[in-house]
Amino acid sequence: MKHIEVVVADASHEKYVDTILNTIADAAKVRGTGIARRTHEYLTTKMREAKAVIALDGDTFAGFSYIETWGNKQYVTTSGLIVHPDYRGMGISKRIKDLTFSLARTRWPHAKIFSLTSGAAVMKMNTELGYQPVTFADLTDDEAFWRGCEGCINVDVLHRTGRKYCICTAMLYDPEEHLPAKIPEDVLARIREIEGKS
Question: Which long-range CB contacts under 8 A does 89-93 form with residues at least 24 apart?
Answer without folding.
Answer: 90/1, 90/2, 90/4, 92/4, 92/6, 92/55, 92/62, 92/63, 93/63, 93/121, 93/122, 93/125
